[in-house]
């Protein structure tokens, strides 16, 4: 039976990406599921949560698929955006925010965009161009 696995992010620097995403999401880098072109991040129970694959292509400025990281409050969103910034994420120059967005668009150290979504304000009103 076919089933959905886990998201995979293409990155230029596997070690840097593994360090960032492991710290960002409180995950572990699995030695069992590693190769020169691949890293797997696992959760507390050892479940595979996120894959990182070496990619020579640049990140897409407006990807059709991206990660949404969820928080429950605006205060938590602000704190997580600051924490992710301290780990190397940057605010994306996003032009598609609605008037009162529930999300903040960031980029990981490789330039892959992702969102931090405040569930207390979700969903955003109609976004011009949608979320990330």
From TrEMBL:
InterPro entries, alphabetized: Glyas_Bleomycin-R_OHBP_Dase, Glyoxalase_6, VOC_core
Where the record annotates domain VOC, the positions are: 3-119
PROSITE patterns found in the cross-reference section: VOC
This one is known as: Catechol 2,3-dioxygenase-like lactoylglutathione lyase family enzyme
Organism field: Pseudonocardia alni
